[in-house]
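Researcher: Sequence recovery benchmark, item below. Answer with residues only.
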């Protein structure tokens, strides 16, 4: 299948997501604001980890769009439109939430204020943003995978693997722990890496 960029570009999203999530200091439970504050005190890692992860979701929107292009010329175009719409909305919310979560605590610390004040103040807004973003982007990936798996040259093994990974990807970010971030990064490789071989 022809695509106007190198198939390896598809891997930019999982690569940035992996770098970003593993850069963020480990927090066993983000709902524990004291533990989150300790993580935020590693200011450079906290800031850059969140920034890179936010950028990853920006590239993720483009990745979903590029992979959806082949579906536009088929009877499965509806899956493509749904995938891009949900990925764009969800990815934007994820990027916004990650940006705020990365900048806010560091800004508080640099103002000689406890980072916990940010976590306390955003205890309802941040989870809501992340959950909506996770569901939106996750549904976009699920729609994309379903559409691509209708194409005759996508194997059953690729179809099953990517669909399971996409479903798990959409659910994991609702768990407020660094462990869910790490697993999400791993799942992103399972979703997109198989399609690189297909595109080549």
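Model:
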């Amino acid at each position: 299948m022809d695509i106007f960029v190198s198939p390896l570009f598809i891997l930019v999203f999982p690569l940035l997501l992996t770098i970003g999530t593993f850069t963020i200091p480990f927090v066993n439970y983000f709902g524990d604001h004291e533990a989150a504050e300790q993580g935020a005190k590693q200011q450079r890692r906290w800031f850059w980890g969140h920034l890179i992860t936010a950028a990853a979701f920006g590239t993720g929107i483009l990745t979903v769009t590029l992979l959806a292009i082949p579906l536009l010329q088929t009877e499965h175009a509806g899956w493509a439109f749904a995938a891009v719409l949900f990925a764009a909305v969800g990815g934007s919310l994820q990027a916004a939430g990650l940006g705020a979560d990365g900048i806010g605590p560091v800004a508080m610390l640099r103002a000689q204020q406890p980072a916990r004040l940010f976590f306390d103040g955003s205890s309802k807004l941040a989870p809501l943003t992340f959950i909506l973003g996770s569901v939106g982007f996750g549904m976009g990936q699920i729609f994309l995978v379903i559409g691509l798996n209708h194409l005759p040259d996508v194997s059953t093994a690729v179809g099953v693997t990517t669909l399971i990974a996409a479903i798990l990807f959409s659910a994991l970010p609702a768990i407020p722990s660094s462990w869910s971030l790490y697993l999400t990064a791993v799942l992103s490789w399972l979703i997109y890496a198989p399609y690189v071989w297909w595109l080549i």
